[in-house]
Amino acid sequence: MPDIIGVAEIENGFVLRSLINSTLLKKYDYSVVHFDSQDHRGIDVGLIYRKSIFDLVESKAFKIKNSNGRLLRTRDILYVHLKEKKGEENNYKLFVNHHPSKFGGDGGTARNLAINRLKNLTDSLSGGKIIAMGDFNDTPENPVFEILKEEKPLFNMSEQLYKKGEGTIRFDGKWELIDMFFLSEECLDTSPVMEIVKIPFLMIRDNVHAGMKPFRTYIGPRYAGGVSDHCPIIIAPV
């Protein structure tokens, strides 16, 4: 089972607590980190970790503001600092992201603000293994991500998968990779590898285009009964 799980699109903390306390996950001693965000649709990010493996040092939700200092009604960037119980040198400084959508008039500008906010936050840290994860609503080749390579660089673990044409969402029969991990240099000693999870119960046949696609929960207002319109991503070891 994963030691740490970042979630990028949940309704509220009750959902996460129900997930770890009222399902088979109960036996894996997970604990939840969640804050309510400013998102106008009520969508939040969150993080689950195994409290038998990690101690929670600190957690905070960071808002995203425009150049005038006005809060954007989007998801916060969630910061969680975990320390491994068996190795005090292993500090993990995690950022869970769900950046503004491409839909809407200022989507690109808002995503630039979110990336710059993330960069400012990671640059402010000293020590520890930094992992930024989530739905960045852009593909790896977008120049907006170049800022993450400056000074204290974060390395995009999705680039090789993107070059192979793999993706986490499917739109009009084409895969796009918008869910990613960015790792600091301290994480690279163990040669971590990112994978996209496409196990059968997460997928459904695409009746319009050849192949499979993620089995989403809703299609417009209609409940379809799936898990998500995104495939999960995993990374190990770190």
Can you characterise this structure?
The chain is mostly beta strands and 238 residues long. Helices cover 13% and strands 35% of the residues. It has three helices and 17 strands. It has helices spanning 13-21, 107-123, 159-163; strands at 4-10, 30-34, 44-50, 54-62, 77-84, 91-98, 129-135, 154-156, 169-171, 174-176, 179-184, 193-196, 203-205, 212-214, 218-219, 222-223, 233-236.
Distance between the termini: 15 Å
**Most strands sheet:** 6 strands, mixed
Please give the radius of gyration in angstroms. 18 Å
What is the molecular shape? globular
Strand content: 35-45%
Runs with pLDDT <50, length 5+?
none
Residue share in helices? 10-25%
List strands and helices in order, with pairings.
Layout: E1 4-10, H1 13-21, E2 30-34, E3 44-50, E4 54-62, E5 77-84, E6 91-98, H2 107-123, E7 129-135, E8 154-156, H3 159-163, E9 169-171, E10 174-176, E11 179-184, E12 193-196, E13 203-205, E14 212-214, E15 218-219, E16 222-223, E17 233-236
What are its keywords?
single chain, 238 residues, mainly beta, 6-stranded mixed β-sheet, 17 strands
Entry summary:
The protein has helices at residues 13-21, 107-123, 159-163, and strands at residues 4-10, 30-34, 44-50, 54-62, 77-84, 91-98, 129-135, 154-156, 169-171, 174-176, 179-184, 193-196, 203-205, 212-214, 218-219, 222-223, 233-236.
